[in-house]
## 1
Amino acid sequence: MSELKSNQGEQAPQASSGTRLLPRITVQAFCEKSQTAQLVESTLSDRRMAKVALTTHNGGLEGAIETYRANPTPNLLMIETTLPPEQIPDALEQLAEFCDPGTKVIVLGHVNDVVLYRHLIRTGVSEYIVLPTEADTFVSAIVELFASQDAEPIGRTIGFVSAKGGSGSSTIAHNSAWAAAQSLQQQVLIVDMDMAYGTAGLNFNQDPPYGIADAVFAKEKLDTVMLDRLISKAASNINLLAAPGTLEQVYDFDEGDFEQIIELVQTTIPLIVLDIPHLWCGWVRRTLSTLDEIVIVAEPDLANLRNAKSMVDTIKSMRPNEPDPLLVLNRVGLPKRPEIASAEFASAIECTLVGEILFDAALFGTAANNGQMIAEVSSGNKVNEAFLKISDRVTGRSRPESEARARGIGLTSLMNMLKRA
Ligand SMILES: Nc1ncnc2c1ncn2[C@@H]1O[C@H](COP(=O)(O)OP(=O)(O)O)[C@@H](O)[C@H]1O
Ligand SMILES: [Mg+2]
């Protein structure tokens, strides 16, 4: 058996400088041996792990497969296995079936085998670490994956924008962000880009002293340390870059003013929800061109239809290689209002309808006035299922039919899911 040459035990160059803090990721380790679990847990005393939420579980690969049949996977999975090398790929294939997009996997094995190593890396596993080892090997591997110079930014960006002011994009953005934070149990950042009138602070009953305006006016001075100070906590797993919501100054931005902020937040938080105001200007257009997913929130009337159509056409032509924008119809069924039928609306603007939310003045009014999410005001309400469906779709947890059909059969395609960013 050929030996795997590794740098285990050595510190990565960035890590040894002590400067590379890991982002706010979730890590779950499934161990077979209690010594391994202890070793994984001991990584928490490393300061690079300060913002990482790590849990260890028993049961190794089998335990992980059982767990993730029904639960979302974290940003990083560490799996210990004592299986013989030839059985590991098949067992991992079963696990891959339940892995959410963006989840990375580190396998902790007891066999030093370069053939197995190469095979695992080729099929999407991020790292194979041979046990026994030291805690620092784990931390260095995690830093390499999530905080090194060549690590892909971890943050998935999702923009919500209304087809017409007041259609409810902020409300849908905040409630969908809440649904994602609760269901995925991952850190979510809401960026309220509506400087003068933004409602994210109000909707979460927060009045933080700093927020997005400080970030954008800091320009080049903004770094992750400063960003951390500007972000406030709004609820469990929900972080906020709140808008000032005042008219003390005017907010005229250059086209690229938000670019650096978005790039920076992507290195520190796995899910970023941008609450974009209903404006058409350089920085809105530029922001829309860079996001992973865009959700257009519209009411089912003619003005919304006209605007949504312009937005969809423009966004599609501006970013032909990115996912098409998605549609949420909101405030549907407003008493006495003549409305355009949902299917007709979606097909007229050639956009996939991912949610339809009924008008409910009492429910939404109570939530807004209390500074609460709908799920807090009325946890059993069916509308929460719609928010969950939107969040599942934009976070990539549920995939469109066509894609679902295309994936599956064969090790490589299944394992590719592990690689999805
Ligand atoms: N489905 C709904 N039923 C009733 N009221 C709603 C609904 N969705 C949003 N609202 C209310 O509509 C108003 C405008 O919503 P908001 O999210 O601020 O819109 P936008 O961000 O598109 O301007 C808010 O008062 C909000 O509480
Ligand atoms: Mg708004």
## 2
Amino acid sequence: MNPQTTRAGFVALIGRPNVGKSTLLNRLVGVHLAAVSPKAQTTRHRIPGFHVEANTQIVFVDTPGLLEPGYALQTAMVQSARAAIEGVDAIYWLVDADEVSDPERKLLAVLQNGSAPVFLVLTKSDREPQGVIDARTAIWADAFSWAGCYAVSATTGEGVDDLLTATRKLLPEQPFFYPEEELTDLSVRFLSAELIREACYRELGEELPYSVHAVVTDWTEPGDDRRKTKLAATLYVERESQKGMVIGQGGKKVKAIGIRARHAIEALIGGPVHLSLQVKVRKKWSRREADLKFFGYKP
Ligand SMILES: Nc1nc2c(ncn2[C@@H]2O[C@H](COP(=O)(O)OP(=O)(O)OP(=O)(O)O)[C@@H](O)[C@H]2O)c(=O)[nH]1
Ligand SMILES: [Mg+2]
């Protein structure tokens, strides 16, 4: 290949909730861009992250986990994941389970007729014995004609280089889509709201984070009189009782969320941050089409 020749393309990361899509995206980009949590359904939007190596720019697109939609927000999330598959150059199908579900078979049948090659990516290889990985590969190998099968760990990086090498070979020769030094086309404001939401997933009990939407309402760059970037954000919940739970006794909970989010935003922007949070109620927002549009979950 001519040393000046570049390749570029789009690769979508799809799979069940909690399989490790966002963790892998962050590993591929080398920065904690996408929210990650042990709870399923953390990601709600498509999150692009760019990887440049060997004269090739890969635009990875993290997606919400594929699930059976139960209410309006979930329907929007599934639509967002499906839309991310359209027009990509390759797909990573992430798996950490030992059976192929019916909805997955249906989607694989659709992909079988499409033009994008699909890689089977077995995730979390650091915590699975080789025997489990081999058995899992055998189960999934039959379900589709994969472009390749790879076991990876987003935590240790094991297997990731082999997957990247195979992916680059499939991408078309063309110029980069984005400037080489950029990592995403999302604004730091949007990413910061995601990190605030991530802090909620980690600090709040089982169900509560699903009712939280975070929005950055004010962003002031550091100035002559101030060293820190100043952020104000609002956490929307769905019921008055949830507001009390998010604030916590004596404001303890919201303080813990704020500290965790501040550390994450500081790591993202590489400078000190002052973050103030307020909590507001927007009744049943996750079930209302108008609110989903207003909050940016739907076009
Ligand atoms: N041990 C180990 N844990 C991992 C790995 N990748 C992800 N995890 C953990 O799995 C959980 C889910 O990870 P996410 O990256 O949020 O999963 P996701 O597929 O993006 O989930 P949704 O956004 O909910 O669809 C988190 O607790 C991660 O720390 C891995 O390679 N090894
Ligand atoms: Mg995710």
## 3
Amino acid sequence: MPRLSGRGGMADASSTTTVPCGGTGRVRTAYRCRAYPTPEQAVMLSRTFGCVRVVWNRTLAARHARWHAERRSTSYAETDRALTEMKKQPDLAFLGEVSSVPLQQTLRHQHTAMTAFFQKRALLTYKTHRDGRTLAMVDRWYPSSKTCSACGHLLAMLPLGTRHWACPGCGTRHDRDVNAAQNIAVAAGLVETQNACGADVRHEGQPSVRSAVNQEPQPARVGIPRL
Ligand SMILES: [Zn+2]
């Protein structure tokens, strides 16, 4: 494996793989690179990664705050201006001490990720509407599987492999996915639930914010039929 740089610096070498692609005469080439930074460069890289995390987290928090307050998404240009303002804040002045290129890349990557998320959500909304269903979204941390849809009892844990369980609070036996779907439907305001006495129950800790699809990849999380 050749080393292309002899100065102990950033861009030392790697391997090259050439794979013939059957019959077409074309080849596919892959490069694998590894950096060997000096101690000074390692410190600068570490600081840069730290700054990238700060910019990512602050920008994401600002996006969420704007969405919840104004129901308005944030453009890339707005995040870029916000980054300029961040650098002027005394407690964030260190952001100006690293290259601005990775920080702006961070903004671009986040904007791309958010755009993909909203496009996906728009597609889901269209498909569920077309099929006569309703797209229900709840906070990603909402414990839809671990909460009894009959009495609201919250289990401390529910292993992923457990498909059926009995509620220690009220004794109801649950199918994991059906129970989760019922909880999501209630949380999303699609239906009211009732306890064993017939009175309306709103589960304690029910999410008021519907910001993301539920964390578990269960088919019931979208396209819940109107009950
Ligand atoms: Zn229960």
